[in-house]
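DM from R.C. (forwarded with permission)

"hey, sorry to bug you on a friday — could you get me a structure for this? deadline for the figure draft is monday and I only need the backbone to look sensible"
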Amino acid sequence: MLVETYCGYLAEAPERLGSWTGRVENAGHVRLDASGLSGAAEAGRETCILSRDIDTCAIDVNGEPVVGALRGAPYDLDAGNGANTTRIRIDEIAGRMAQHGAECLAGIGGTFSLAVVFPRRREVILAVDRFAVENLYYIQDRDGIAFGNRTQLLAAHPACAQSFSAQAIYDYLYFHCLPGPDTGYAAIERLLPGQFVHWRDGTTTVQPYWQPRYTEDNNATEDNFTEELRAAMGNAVSRHMTEQGVGCFLSGGLDSSTVTGMSAAAGKGDITAFTIGFDAPEYDEMNFARAAADHFGVPLVPYYVTPDDVAASLPEIIQAFDGPFGNASAVPAYYCAKLAVDHGMSVILAGDGGDELFGGNERYAKQLVFEKYMALPAGLRQSVIEPIVDRVPAALSNKAIRYIEQAAVPLPDRLMTYNLLEMVGATSFLTEEFLASIDTRNPIRSLRSMYSTDDAVSTLNRMLYLDLRITLADSDLPKVSRMCDLAGIRVAYPMLDEALFDLAARLPARLKIRRGELRYFFKRAFSELLPASTLNKSKHGFGLPFGVWLQTDPKLQELVAANLSVLEDAGILRRDFRGEFLSAKFQEHPGYYGTLLWVLTCLGMWLEQQRVSIN
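My reply, with the result:
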């Protein structure tokens, strides 16, 4: 397991922190403070960072005591964005911040969470990378500020009452993850992608140092973009191949295949690919992974995940996350990362991010069709098309009516038309008491707020931005990163390179999706690299056949039953839900409704592990 954690504080009266810091130290964290630095005695507040296996510093910058901590792999953007970038350490970043403050963050790329403390100034700067690959949390109280890269490190802080928000539980059930900046703990706040916190003597400023800017360049030719994309992709992959033992996740899909193929083409050492299969034909994609590996001449190491694997590993998987987490692909991600460790890999490359940059989800194309329909003159729709629909046979008209009704729902609400919680109905499984304590419209309001950004002018780019914020930052990246931590291997995301995002933001929407074809430009740019099976493959990924297995596997049935009981006892889940749901709906569509049982099981297990009260 990769621990690599840190927390710290700047406090007026550190004795009020009680046993919190002692508990963290007892867990193996090393204390670092400014006591030996010049001017520290005049600081007026105590500062301390407790860390395990990360980059820290306690330095003197022109007579100014500075303490810092860093997790990740940041590099200097000002030194260029080619394959050979310059990694920067926390002492270098702290030195820049002593002179230029948070402005220096604009020149830092790569992945990171960092904290820099200036005791004499009574000042703290916290920041995370542009996509929040690394996370950071903080607590403010009357005495100062505390921070850490795991909520578990902060949950025992005196300001945190160990109570978890009922609203956060509902939002989790809606999204299957907890969208930032909410953490579920009233006192703990989370930094969003590309955001920093500036705390000075009790005054806090939270703002972005970087935001996605979608400036579609309709004057550049497709050839110009193609050459730039290939070069940027090559640099992004090569940057992570400086160590021995580099592996690749490989599902046979577009992004993992591109990363694997570019890694093999880089010629910087032997590459090994790792993949996951299932003894469930509709979920197993092993043949696609084998075809891609054979095409690139890369050895492929497979592993078939079983129901026993799920039952055995789920408790430690759930424990690895900072809040309730319901993305079932965490299980195959963990076993794939573990497989890489077992074969001597030190780094594994993941393809996450490509769909959110270049337009790779089916819902994007579907929503664009709805938008075209709604762009027709209202008179044409209402006086011609819809009356015709009313006169055709019911078998056809019902489908057309549903299409028209769905099209009339504005974005982003329309994206949630098939949301599982909406389809099942919250009142069918959540208690009246629980529902009375929350706002069921909170999830859609948060979506509307993110969707209304002025920095993504086209409908497609607004949807991509929404998925950057939720699907990627709150679900897919934590899934892969935390499972790699648990397995004990570092992970890198070449698709989230700054140069690649810059290109994607300038790429016209018409080249991302053309006539319903997803990733149109990206596929054309890499058509000579990728096998036909990858180019023609529909999107799937490492899905987990949980519902299919649950029908017959007694261990999984026992696991679900135990954790549904936790939710019933907590007053969240209706006691009459289980029998009716399992005997009727679940049996009709185990794959679909199995997802709800998975999400509920993960919630029950997390609440039981954390022992938090619900408010």
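R.C.: lifesaver. Residues 251 and 541 are 6 Å apart (CA to CA).
me: no worries. The longest helix spans residues 459-487.
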